[in-house]
Amino acid sequence: MKKIVLDVDTGVDDALGIILAVKSGMFDVLGITTVNGNVSLAKSTENTCKILDFIGADAGIPVVRGASQPLLRHVYFEHRIHGEDGLGGALRDFSASRQAQDGFAPDFMIEQVKSHPGEVTLIMTGPLTNLALAISKYPELVHQVKEVIFMGGVVTQYGNVTPTAEYNMYVDPEAAKLVFHAGFPELTMVGLDVTRKVLLDESHIAELGDTELADYVRVSTSEYTQRYFERNGVRACALHDPLAVGVAMSPELVTTRKLFVDIETRSELCDGQTICDFQNRLGKKPNMHVCLDVDAPAFFEQFVRVLNS
Ligand code: RIB
Ligand code: CA
Question: 267 and 273 in contact (C-beta within 8 Å)?
Answer without folding.
Answer: yes
